[in-house]
Amino acid sequence: MNHGQLAAEALRFRLDTLQPSMVDPARFDLERAADVAACSADPVIDSAIRTIGCAWIAAGLPRDDLTRSWDQPAVRELFGRRPDLIDALDDIVRQVCRLAPCT
Question: C-alpha angle with apex 61: 55 to 65, nearest 5 degrees?
Answer without folding.
Answer: 105
